[in-house]
Write a structure and sequence with these properties.
single chain; about 130 residues; alpha/beta; five-stranded mixed sheet; 4 helices
Length: about 130
């Protein structure tokens, strides 16, 4: 573990517009120093659909590094407005985020898992 530093984990879209708002939100919510960012195009969709075994295994592996090596106790799965990698309506994205949270919870990491939405103003809300 990283001595003296605290971490949270964001399973976020690769879209650069979501990175800063999510990091700021998680740092404030959990009073952590750093946010490990695991990016994919539309990770909520990838985890909810469960079709891309290699992408899912990669996400799981990277969460394991964040929780195991950095001691992260908080994992957020992110969906967002105007997602090119997962171009489905907001309501569908919300469903996918909730399903993705359940998937990550099923992996048994010693961490709280939450779902986040980044809206059209790049503001973060918990789902």
């Amino acid at each position: 573990m990283s001595a003296g530093h605290t971490f949270a984990t964001a399973v976020n879209c690769m879209d650069g517009r979501t990175q800063d708002p999510v990091s700021v939100y998680l740092k404030k919510k959990y009073a952590v120093d750093y946010v490990d960012t695991i990016t994919e195009p539309g990770p909520n969709g990838i985890l909810a659909r469960g079709e891309d075994a290699s992408a899912i295994a990669s996400i799981k592996h990277r969460i394991g590094i964040s929780t195991g090596k950095h001691g992260s106790k908080h994992i957020a799965v992110v969906g967002h407005h105007d997602c090119a990698g997962n171009p489905v309506p907001k309501e569908k994205q919300f469903e996918q985020v909730k399903a993705a949270v359940k998937t990550i919870e099923s992996w048994g990491f010693a961490a709280e898992v939450i779902g986040l939405w980044v809206d059209e103003n790049w503001e973060v809300m918990e789902i």
